[in-house]
Specification:
Elements: H1 17-26, H2 32-66, H3 69-118, H4 121-126, H5 129-171, H6 173-220, H7 222-227, H8 231-283, H9 290-331, E1 343-346, H10 356-359, E2 360-365, E3 371-375, E4 380-387, E5 396-403, E6 408-413, H11 419-426, E7 434-439, E8 442-443, H12 449-454, E9 456-459, E10 468-469, H13 470-475, H14 483-492, H15 496-501, E11 509-510, H16 519-533, E12 537-541, H17 549-562, E13 567-571, E14 583-588, E15 591-596, H18 598-604, H19 607-612
Parallel strand pairs: 6-13, 6-14, 9-12, 12-13
Antiparallel strand pairs: 1-2, 2-3, 4-5, 4-7, 7-8, 10-11, 14-15
Helix pairs in contact: 1-9, 2-3, 2-5, 2-9, 3-5, 5-6, 5-9, 6-8, 6-9, 8-9, 14-16, 16-17
């Protein structure tokens, strides 16, 4: 199998902001109408601020001219009502957006999880696990900040800018044009600086993913790092990706923070200019009066605030856009195709633990619309199978063999010969380039993946245990199993005795992939998990490699019981595990060079004989 790539991830600049935004809106689902209501509340909040400033000038002018204090009181109360309603709308849309954003994040994480489960195994071979984790954590977290706070505020800022432009024009068009010039300068600066920010925020997001990948790699390989005294080299490698993130992060925040002092400085110049020019217009009676001047000054002061507001949220918006595009790129990865029509169907409700064959059969669709039941046996046939993880680099070359019901077939050969690849192809983790693989006489490409994989039990060299109790980990292969069935499976795998010696027995909680147990104990639990399900095809991929010689003898007896009346495919370096096989296939450079029983291959005195006599060793 190809090793997972550890190369740093290159950044991709956001290419289509509006496409990303519209795709985000899709996750609001049926609550899009609530989102529209939020936009209406935001617009009214902006209207209240702008109209309140216009009305303020009218109130002052009317009070000065008419000295109508009752009218002034009514106008003041009206003004208070407008501002008060705006404040309530502000509070309302803020609370609604918090709830809506959590709904979006829930739906997005759900889709990420489902998509992650449906990706082909080849995707995980070529991508860092830390990079994939960053989609669920860092990239999604950027949306939390943007949706909770920045989304509504950006709309509010835009509405305030439009409202201010209109309000200034109602006072005096010439004064308005002079201030429009300042607003255009501010807008041009933001557009120019935003392009810089987009670039560096995309680099920053990719940098975080690279750091996650490196940390995950170092934690998984901490024993190897310490064993070879590579702490310094490991740190240097981490420091390299950390410096790349530092550069991108520094640049992105520099350009973001540059907005505020530049815009504030321009706004002060604009305000001073407006006060001087506005006073000249008032003295020369070119505007209506003090009220008009007040409206003008207030709106001039407010004209820069939306830009300031925008710059305060640009960090969240740009980071969220960069993170969103990374998420959507992941979601656009092609999922594992399942075009199989042959289903694994249940025939009865037998309750015995090892009666898989009597309980299930293959339902094969016929051309006339009916279905045909094919008995589930566990027979495997490879006919001229050719495969390579990379099309131009073949791993298996024209492989043919068969495993009949109840037979034990062993594969031996040096590392890279293609043994584990054969096992992966039976599960359809990968699709072959040519040839065919038959399961009970049915081409596996015609089978539903869920049914195919449910009919196979597999124990690998790298045992994975989930956080939870021992009981739950054994039950993982058959979730509806009773406690008695779990104990029976543990006894078959010869791990019942050590489980009962643990402080909490079967309720002992495993953590960190079961590292509170020994390697051998973890492997025995994997065997127990396989014993609980026990479909007709059992695959053992170096299943005893982590068990000492004494334990292996005990486990071998248990495995012999597991193998009864089942087809078994075994990959092993220890010949003691494969000697009693019905057939042993010796692979070399992706081809079967020798096949036969243990006695037959010894008589042949070829490669297997040299291995058996200790004249050669498997690498």
């Amino acid at each position: 199998m190809p090793r997972t790539s550890s190369a740093p991830q290159k950044y991709a600049r956001p290419t289509n902001i509006f496409k990303t935004l519209f795709r985000l809106i899709h996750y609001f689902g049926k609550k899009k109408y609530i989102l529209i209501f939020v936009v209406i509340l935001v617009i009214y909040t902006s209207f209240a601020n702008i109209y309140g400033s216009i009305m303020l000038g009218q109130v002052i002018d009317n009070a000065i001219k008419a000295e109508d204090y009752n009218g002034l009181l009514v106008s003041t109360l009206t003004l208070i009502g407008i501002y008060g309603a705006g404040a309530l709308c502000d509070l309302a849309y803020t609370q609604i957006m918090v709830r809506l954003s959590q709904t979006v994040l829930y739906n997005l994480r759900k889709e990420l999880s489902i998509h992650n489960q449906n990706l082909p195994l080849s995707y995980f071979d070529l991508h860092n696990h830390g990079e994939i984790m960053s989609y669920f954590t860092n990239d999604v977290d950027t949306l939390v900040n943007a949706l909770n706070d920045s989304f509504a505020n950006i709309i509010l800022s835009f509405c305030n800018i439009i409202g201010t432009i209109i309000a200034l024009a109602t006072v005096n068009i010439y004064l308005a044009l002079m201030n429009y010039a300042f607003m255009i300068i501010i807008a041009l600066f933001i557009v120019f600086n935003t392009k810089k920010c987009r670039k560096y925020f995309a680099m920053q997001q990719a940098g975080v993913a690279n750091i996650n990948s490196k940390v995950e790699e170092d934690i998984n390989g901490v024993k190897v790092v310490k064993a070879f005294n590579h702490e310094d080299e490991s740190f240097e490698s981490f420091d390299k990706v950390n410096k790349e993130w530092l550069f991108a992060s520094t640049k992105s925040f520099f350009h973001t923070q540059l907005n505020i002092p530049v815009i504030v400085s321009l706004s002060f110049v604009q305000f001073a200019f407006a006060c001087v020019v506005g006073t000249l217009f008032l003295v020369n009676s070119w505007i209506a009066g003090i009220g008009a001047l007040t409206t003008y000054i207030v709106n001039v002061r407010q004209s820069a605030q939306p830009f300031n507001f925008f710059t305060q949220h640009i960090n969240n918006i740009l980071t969220a856009l960069a993170g969103s595009e990374r998420i959507f790129k992941f979601l656009d990865e092609e999922e594992e195709k399942d075009e199989g029509k042959v289903k694994l169907v249940k025939l009865g409700d037998a309750s015995e633990l090892h009666d898989y064959k009597s309980r299930y059969a293959w339902s094969v669709p016929q051309e006339n619309g009916t279905t045909k039941l094919v008995p589930l046996k566990g027979e495997i046939v490879f006919n001229n199978v050719t495969f390579g993880y990379v099309p131009n680099k073949l791993i298996l070359k024209d492989i043919s063999f068969y495993a009949k019901d109840g037979q034990k077939i062993a594969f031996v050969g040096s590392t890279g010969a293609g043994k584990t690849t054969i096992i992966s192809l039976i599960n359809r983790f990968y699709n072959i380039q040519s040839g065919e693989i038959l399961y009970d006489g049915i081409n596996i490409k015609d089978m539903e993946l869920s049914g195919l994989r449910r009919s196979i039990s597999m124990v690998t060299q790298d045992t994975h245990l989930f956080t939870g109790t021992i009981k739950d980990n054994i039950r993982y292969s058959r979730l509806h199993s009773t406690d008695d069935e779990i104990i029976q499976a543990a006894k078959i795998a010869n791990c019942d005795s050590f489980i009962r010696m643990l402080p909490n027995g079967y309720d002992t909680v495993l953590y960190d992939d079961g590292h509170n147990l020994s390697e051998g104990q973890r492997q025995l639990l994997a065997l127990a998990r396989a014993a609980l399900s026990m479909p007709p095809l059992l695959i053992l991929d170096e299943a005893t490699s982590n068990i000492d010689t004494r334990s292996e003898k005990l486990v071998q007896k248990s495995m012999d019981h597991l193998m009864e009346n089942r087809t078994v495919l075994v990959i092993a370096h220890r010949l003691s595990t494969v000697k009693n096989s019905d057939a042993i296939l010796y692979l070399e450079n992706g081809k079967i060079v020798e096949r036969g029983s243990n006695d037959d291959l010894i008589k042949l005195k070829g490669k297997y004989y040299a291995l058996y006599e200790g004249k050669t060793e498997l690498e």
